[in-house]
Design a protein that fits this description.
The protein is of the alpha/beta class. About 35% of the residues lie in helices and about 15% in strands. The protein contains seven helices and seven strands, in the order ααββαβαβαβαββα. Strand 1 (about 70-75) and strand 2 form a beta hairpin.
Length: about 200
């Protein structure tokens, strides 16, 4: 093989390597992930006018039931350590998804309750649907509550830690002493008074 032929062959191999490198890679060899660019959700979060996600101050320690569960604040991606953020306070944690019709009815009810004097903290957890769709829904509903995103899949770290039921919506009451209780009555809140009774335990 002449030097000219060797040079041409090396150039061809280099061109082929560049082409392969530039080809889109939708899946890894195991088919477990899709490589896509993360959209900038900052503008969508601004339109939704969501308050900051809870951070906690560390003085109350950590909530044992939540272990080391970390979620991301919807739209800005900031990590939220729920074990610290929920410790030492009464919080209603509500799980929802954009495709869940009862959730669309319940979210405004939770917002109305949270606006009342003396209301407990309300934290909503979006799962099983995309962050972009969640921000669009909240903007359309005019709901301005703290929201963390628990992933697009059928399960996520928050739902796993809470041992959440398959049905949505689902609400949990987290007490200052660290107890976590699934609220079953009612399964879906229809009025702010129902939320208040579930939180306070009053008839």
């Amino acid at each position: 093989m002449t030097a000219l032929t060797k040079g041409a062959l090396a150039a061809a191999v280099l061109v082929l390597a560049v082409i392969v490198a530039l080809l889109p890679r939708d899946n890894d060899p195991g088919g477990s992930a899709t490589i896509t660019a993360n959209p900038d959700l900052g503008a969508a979060r601004a339109r939704a006018a969501l308050p900051p996600c809870p951070a906690g101050d560390g003085r109350a320690g950590a909530l044992p039931a939540m272990g080391e569960v970390a979620a991301s604040c919807l739209g800005d991606g900031a990590p939220v350590d729920l074990a610290t953020a929920l410790a030492g306070r009464t919080t209603l944690v509500n799980l929802w998804a954009t495709w869940c019709e009862p959730c669309k009815t319940e979210l405004p009810v939770l917002a109305a309750y949270a606006a009342q004097p003396g209301a407990a903290n309300v934290l909503t957890v979006q799962g099983a649907s995309s962050a972009a769709d969640g921000l669009e829904l909240l903007t359309r509903l005019g709901v301005h509550l703290p929201v963390v995103h628990d992933g697009d899949g059928q399960t996520g770290p928050v739902r796993t830690a809470l041992r959440a039921p398959a049905r949505l919506p689902a609400s949990f009451l987290v007490t200052p002493d660290g107890q976590v209780r699934l609220i079953g009555d009612p399964p879906v809140f229809e009025t702010p008074d129902q939320v208040r009774r579930a939180v306070t335990g009053s008839p």
